[in-house]
């Protein structure tokens, strides 16, 4: 049985490794010319590490990163609202992609090769082509929607002992330490906001921004719920199926779990039965996560009653 994976990101590579393990002949088609050499950090939660363990790659992923220390949520003046008890392993996107790609044999991953659904004559097509998925568009006609927030990301050569987030009026700023001693940071503003708004926030936020280069800015979009993650011989995974705002830090995690779940469903089933099993297992849970992430995004962006919001945060963090 032959499978085509359209997209060589986290979900696509996880699916390829998993499908090969259960006997599929897999080819991954990735439009970029190679694996990225730079990228911001990813938080891999316990559920996704367990999925990587299923692929036999969990220990390699752990060795490529570091465990995230517990952090805090603060106000812009530095007042601590509560502690974040982290059960997360941090590693960069290039490191995670490297771990996954190294598990594939030569020739399985084809760079510089764009592929469309119409061109695939495989028994299975895995659409892992991201939030702007052409496969999803052709099957369901569903496009991503803007959340109304703008995301900013960067990495700085400045170590911090622990990460966390700072919530202000309609804005937030987050820090995550990396294994190499650098710090990954991210921020969220309204569509008309810019990073100068964080210049008066507590240390080390102004210093992080002053020393950052190559800052990325993008709209924080999300995908409305799809009626299904499968159609005929096609399965949608990762952002192609359930792109969510980054507020829960679960995007890469859910893409990994999608890929591993899909491979498991196709281990001993015919393609049609296996795909419907994958859809039943993954669609409702990921759509609930996406809904919660969007709610948290909107909560972080409130401009009024921030004192009430902060009190609610304090109580929620106190009870875990």
What features would you highlight for this structure?
monooxygenase activity; FAD-dep_Monooxygenase_BioMet; alpha/beta; oxidoreductase; FAD-bd; six-stranded mixed sheet; 320 residues; FAD binding; FAD/NAD(P)-binding domain
Produce the secondary structure layout.
Elements: E1 2-6, H1 10-21, E2 25-30, E3 41-45, H2 46-54, H3 58-63, E4 66-67, E5 71-74, E6 80-84, E7 88-92, H4 93-101, E8 109-111, E9 124-127, H5 134-140, E10 145-156, E11 164-167, E12 172-177, E13 183-189, H6 205-210, E14 216-222, E15 230-231, E16 234-236, H7 239-242, H8 251-265, H9 271-300, H10 306-318
Description:
The chain is of the alpha/beta class and 320 residues long. The protein has a single domain (2-318), classed as FAD/NAD(P)-binding domain (3-Layer(bba) Sandwich). The chain has 10 helices and 16 strands. The chain has helices at 10-21, 46-54, 58-63, 93-101, 134-140, 205-210, 239-242, 251-265, 271-300, 306-318, and strands spanning 2-6, 25-30, 41-45, 66-67, 71-74, 80-84, 88-92, 109-111, 124-127, 145-156, 164-167, 172-177, 183-189, 216-222, 230-231, 234-236. Strands 6-5-11-12-13-10-14 form a 7-stranded mixed β-sheet. A 6-stranded mixed β-sheet has the order 8-2-1-9-16-15, with helices on both faces. A 3-stranded antiparallel β-sheet has the order 3-7-4. Helix 1 packs parallel to helix 4 (93-101) and helix 1 (10-21) runs parallel beside helix 8. The protein is globular and about 60 Å long. The protein starts with a strand and ends with a helix. The mean pLDDT is 94.
